[in-house]
Amino acid sequence: MGKELADNARPNILFLMSDQHRADIAGYAGDPIARTPALDELARTGVVFNNAYTPAPICIPARQSMAAGQLPRTCGCEVFGEDLAPGHMTFARRLSQFGYATVACGKLHHNGTDQMQGWTRRIGQDMSLRHDYIEGRNLEAFRNLPLATEHKWSQAKEVKRAGIGRGPIISSDEYSLDGARRFVESFFAGPYYDRATPARPLMLMLSFVRPHVPFLTSHDKFTYFLNRVSPYVNESVFEHPFLSSRAVKPGLDVSEREIRRATAAYYGMVEAIDEDYGQLIAALEHVGQDLDDWIIIYTSDHGEMLGEHALWEKTKFFEGSVRVPLIIRLPGGANAGRVVDENVNLCDLFATLCDLTDVPAVDGLDSRSLLPLLNGDSAGWDNETISHYCGTHLGHEAHFDRYENLMIKRDDLKYQYYGRDMPEVLFDLSRNREETVDFIGDPKYAGALASFRRRRDELGYGPSADPDYQNAGY
Predict the structure, then answer these.
(1) Which of 5, 41, 204, 207 would be 17's cystine partner, CB 3.0–4.6 Å?
(2) What is the pTM of this model?
(3) CATH of the domain at 40
């Protein structure tokens, strides 16, 4: 894994996470104008996964699946608003069982009655019980209560209102960063009561809400990016009932200038989280931590369409929405600069963390250790990744619009199933990276399509769905 740690101690882990960060908007990813020096340094000294995917292109199912190392259908969190059952095994719970202090600062999006889900400490403004989980609640009383805090503007209005400003998520992220820095001083220095515990292994997560909507940034960042961005202003809607839903058409729903402003604000938010990650790294170094001894991970729960295909935010299986940034820096900078092109999933982080810390994994995971890929060994890797999207969000009476959306990607082929009433889709990224051509009817892909359909059935989808689905079978 890299240089030997003193006394064979388990390495500390710094887990950096964002919300809605599009994978290609970072300096290390080749974006010519993005300013992300902290992430670029992690990429330079770590391993970059070019084809990392979310298990669900929407916040809550993605985060619960990552935590559980299980796909949404396996862990029971398929719909926005559903949380893991109390006591569910998560990677935080597993590492804490083996002595790790597991401390999460910021967004985890647990809405149920188990607000810790295995973390030994939580810091931030993210802890709240969703009304659906209030035991014995009076449905009639809740039917008449305004719950507007749980809703955003329409996507067109989000674009129109983007620009210079301070949204509520900025102050929430500031709270998380301040809490993380205070914790670092207490844990590693303990200057007042001399109760520092640096000998205990630590997994510290700093999880931001940005660059999630509303897209608001500082004056300096906005004006820097405004005339430098290349916004998606000449986009056509992909003709498909779901992939075209909620389109925001340039020149009709929003102006080209508004798209440019929203794009500039988004870039500013990406730069701001990078600066804040740098502050936490500096705080660790200030108390004498050698980050060369640490495992450092950066990722996001899903991407952001940013106007591509005339779409914004997430929920789609287009690359902008479903592909996520993923960097893993090993102790000692082992394998620095390596780029992995195999398909991987955020669910794989559970088994990977267990492998990197010599903690025994658990059964029933949809999680494969990335350690062989980190070491350059792709032999035997199935090169598959899976993503689900099964609904909008829970309503006041826990009803929801049910979707049966599934993506299976193998190599460069991306198969999508949208239930009985919508057509399947097949993209070939090797031939059409822009995802504007559907190859589902091309005879050349008949064999691959048959294989995808068999796998779809195994995963509990489609007209021949396996009624006894348990997990992905890894």
Answers:
(1) 207
(2) 0.94
(3) 3.40.720.10
